[in-house]
Design goal:
Elements: H1 11-19, E1 31-33, H2 36-46, E2 48-53, E3 63-68, E4 71-76, E5 79-83, H3 86-97, E6 102-106, E7 112-113, E8 116-126, E9 132-141, E10 156-159, H4 160-194, E11 200-207, E12 213-219, H5 225-228, H6 234-245, E13 258-259
Parallel strand pairs: 10-13
Antiparallel strand pairs: 1-6, 2-3, 2-6, 3-4, 4-5, 7-8, 8-9, 8-11, 9-10, 11-12
């Protein structure tokens, strides 16, 4: 059933849209509603999980949960907690989750740049011809003491190739970035089937140690702030121009995200 909505807040609903696409579904980590028994089963199976509010943004409320040997751990914001039993950990977790709907997502072990985890924000928009076009990829390197990479949480923004090439080399990096472009195009087309009025999406994509990309989340009201921190301004100029074409103007108050060391303001 088609909808005129331009934004969807439920992460689970957006995940289900991705899973309807046979190819995209291969790049989506297992995601479920949080309950006690499911958390225990998945923790034993995967060893590391992320808990996320079903609605929310900016990385607020995200928790990493791990089972190491017989001990149970979780990290929330900058605080780490360790427990001898699952029950003790779950009771503590409930103080953070409260009555909100939370999701469990299979943990992806992110690559690291200078010891800090990173992922990617990929922007895809309808261009003036009405076709979905990837308009930017930026790497988001987490604050040293946080589990999320968001710029609003103190993350640092890098050009994607600057963090991938030291790990994968130029050729594999080029292939990986091309794959992200393809995933973004597929995602735009898939969302359009249910929400034809949508004009823009922001994909959060992680890359694991085998250099496989994973779509962690799709944002239907994406913040273009990461692209303002890149030295090359081509992406942010195109993002703004396409947005103006479909009637959106951004408030680019991007003071929390950090610019990569050595990069500078540039009009190039």
């Amino acid at each position: 059933m088609k909808s005129n909505r331009k934004a969807v807040s439920s992460k689970l609903m957006k995940t289900r849209i991705l899973l309807q696409h046979s190819e995209l579904s291969k790049y989506v980590p297992a995601t479920y509603r949080l309950n006690r028994s499911r958390l225990l089963v998945l923790l034993k199976r995967h060893g590391m999980l992320y808990l996320k509010p079903d609605t929310g943004s900016l990385g607020i409320g995200v928790i990493r949960v791990e089972k190491r040997g017989k001990m149970f751990h979780y990290r929330h914001d900058v605080q780490s907690h360790t427990f001898p039993t699952f029950q003790a950990m779950f009771q503590s977790l409930q103080r953070h989750t409260g009555s909100r709907n939370y999701l469990i997502q299979k943990g992806i072990h992110l690559l690291k740049h200078q010891g800090r985890r990173f992922d990617f924000r990929v922007m895809v928009q309808k261009n003036p011809s009405g076709e979905w076009e990837p308009t930017g990829i930026a790497a988001r390197v987490a604050h040293p003491h946080k589990i999320v990479t968001n710029g609003s949480q103190g993350g640092t923004i890098y050009a994607a190739a600057d963090v991938m090439e030291p790990i994968a080399g130029t050729e594999k990096t080029d292939r990986l970035l091309h794959k992200m472009d393809l995933l973004a195009r597929w995602t735009g087309a898939q969302f359009s089937q249910s929400y034809p009025a949508m004009n823009e999406l922001g994909l959060d994509i992680a890359v694991d140690r085998r250099l496989r990309p994973w779509i962690l989340e799709v944002n239907t009201r994406p913040d273009p702030c990461p692209f303002t921190k890149l030295e090359n301004k081509e992406s942010i100029r195109k993002i703004i121009a396409y947005a103006e074409g479909y009637g959106r103007k951004y408030k680019l108050d991007c003071s929390k995200a950090k610019r990569a060391p050595g990069s500078r303001e540039s009009d190039s």
